[in-house]
Design a protein that fits this description.
The chain is built from 25 helices and 41 strands. By secondary structure, it is α+β, with helices and mostly antiparallel strands.
Length: 817
Amino acid sequence: MTNDDVMLFEALPWQIEPWKDKSPIVLLTGSGGGGKALALDTKVVTARGLVPMGDVHVGDTVYAIDGKPTRVIAETGVMQDRQCYEVEFSTGERVTCDAGHEWVVSKDGGKLHVQTARDLARHVTRQKGNRYAVPVCGTVERDSRDLPLSPWLLGFLLGDGYLPQMTFTTADPEIAARVAQEVPGGHEVEHVGNAGNPYTYIIRSGLNWDKSRDRTVNAGRVYPHRLSPKFCAIAYKDQYLGMFDTEAEGWAAIEALHGGRKLVLKGCGIHYELNRLGLRECRSGDKFIPDVYKHTSAHQRLELLRGLMDADGHIQPGRGRTEFTVIGERLARDVFGIVCSLGIKAHIHEKPMVVNGEPYKAWRVQFTSHVPVFWLARKAAHVRDRTRLRKTQFRRYIVGVKRVASVPVKCIQTEAGTYLVTESHIPTHNSRLCAEKAHAFCLKYPGAMALAVRKTRESMNNSTVLFIQRAVIGDDPRVTFVPSKSRFEYWNGSILAWGGMNDDKQREQIRSIGQDGGLDFVWMEEATRFVEDDLNEVLGRMRGKAAPWMQVILSTNPDAPSHWIKKRLIDGGEAAVYYSSASDNSHNPAQYVDNLGKLTGVLGERLREGRWVQAEGAIYFDFRDEVHTIEPFVIPANWRRIRSVDFGYTNPFVAQWWAVDDDDRMYLYREIYMTNRTVRSHTERIAELSDGERIEATVADHDAEDRATMAEGGVKTTAAKKAVSVGIQEVMDRLKVAGDGRPRLFIFRGATVEIDQSLEERKLPVSTLEEMTLYTWEDKAKKEQPVKEHDHGMDAMRYAAMYLKGKNTWSAYSRQQ
């Protein structure tokens, strides 16, 4: 960046002016961004394996550019008639995407940045100066699994074993010794080679077929085990039942199965496990890696690969070029996928061969890596050190981009901003202007102090930080990621820190950032989540001296016209304001805009058109944030306390804690607002949070099973009065300002004990407070029934108000305590 106007990423037209703007406060507001879509049959790397894009949905776990798991937080519908391109990579893969799809690329080995498929089609050539590449992903991080056979043993048998007879061939004594070590207990490895074939071994089950011990029950048998003091039970047709401490236990197991006729699997021990995996009768051209071994931890996948490479792998001395050649295409592609999942760039191609004078087609997987893919010492000695590898081993080049016929496409968005596709684990991406501007500021001005902040630190860590790290900064050697200090450190002394402002602890952490707490640049993401005092505190910290200008940039979707951002920054003219709508994004497919059009009510109008609007037919029209939302205070011990609960799982479960003062004013001082957790889990949390408090009653929805679950957890409930219109009127009456200038219902700022990340990322309400301006009448004229959406906190609040209606029982309650 040589001057302030140079953009480090491909910008949309509406983004150019806010990038250049140096005003003290800049507000970016409007509807959601759009999709960068891939063909429905594109394979996405998920926790379930390779899944077609069409079958990937919100909540699924996929993997980011560094191999770490990340959640899908948004998806579009299927989009038709899009301009499509096919992107071809040097390793042979082809991916079809729409013209606006963004790829994380480097040009001729330079800094990672973002390019659309349309632009790549104009620029990509194989000539030096126009060579674009995507980075090789990091090692995919999955959980370890309990596996029926050791990964190394299965890999070796797939590479060099004749599975129908359980034989293998090796000239390395240490290989035979390791196989003997890895086979399950009760098996042994025996050398059966002869002069003509001296290197053949067989894996035997270790059973002593002593006919004198037989006692038949429909061909059932119990044998003394040759290698242990246990007994092995074999049922009908030699079906293996297991090992038992006594002969009598073995016979009992056989007899309990009526002679074993109910069993269908044949073999015992290692034979039995291979049969369960579908490999027992596989010959060379039929072998494959079972899914359970593909989706294991990195260590287990590496051990599997070592077994394969020790058996059938080759490495060129001096060059470190490694290859695995096999007749079966399925096994070759499985090996290719395992190699790529370990962060290794690999190639796969067909290789003609001649065996005994007959032509064959074989498949070759080739790669060069510093990863120790061999256990066998004579091969492992030739693996190259990472420092001796060429940088091209960490890039996958784009060799062609061409226009193709349109196909159905779909877009997903992830928390991390990137995700992996195809067997090669190629990274692809989503973008954001404010993160790029903060990064550019730190590069431009040495010693700059910048801050990226969301309302909660948790949402910052789980979303924005990952995006900045993986997609904006990338592998820039001038920047160091220092998670222990919650910041990025730049070579020129600049710092880009991050944090939250949800409570005093989070505020105190960001107050310590910078020289004497001074800041040069602040990005407030999802700005409507903040209260006005948050902005005031940030503005009070803007006293940095690194640059000739300072800036607070806020990005947000619109809210109600009564929101402080609308009144102060837009109507009051305090900020330079830039609007955008979904139609302003040229990358947005038409159907994506159509999907926004299907959103109902005021939320749809805000997200679709980018308008700051009040809900037409708003129920609680008297609600004012500046009147009804107050700072928390210590609740006097003699005030009444009640709880109200609205059950949910896919929809939010809401539990509210209300304090009631001597004048019958109610205060929402604590709240759980959370999806995808069980009632039992919530009950434990409610009990924990209420420890030491005197709760008069817990009023709850009428679900008998959920109320019983709460009772089992020690939280007894009272059935709520659910008359909707009466309850709404009671809340309305409490919201009205009384003769003393105060209403009779207040909500503490920050009352929600934990922000639901999935709701926040989907831009849905995360608290009762955020529901207040969205709660509307179904029929604006009749005003009889509310719309059944964004009403979970509203229901719980109504239950509390109805419980207190006419229940002036404070004196009795005080005496009871």
